[in-house]
Specification:
The protein has no helices and 5 strands. The chain is mainly β. The chain has a 5-stranded mixed β-barrel with strand order 1-2-3-5-4. It is globular, with a radius of gyration of 13 Å.
Length: 97
Amino acid sequence: MNLSVRGKIYKKRPYYDNRIHHINCIAFLELDEGMKIFEDSIKIMPILCEGRRLALSVGENVEINGVMELRQITTISGERNIHSLPVLLAESVEKIS
């Protein structure tokens, strides 16, 4: 599902996943407007992308276009989440003021 979201970069870290080699960054976006996905209200959405596409700092406001998928993401400890989460695979990132 194609999606465009706006919000503030809440957290950002390197991301390693042996299933997706071109993705090397995960950011968590605090959405300007929460969204409802499968009866759940979401305020913070994980964003997977190439680090060079997200060369912005924590706290900056952005608009991100991409494809939303349900995925088991790798946690900071290297383990996969038990449940699939809604994740946005970023195609474009723009800073907004």
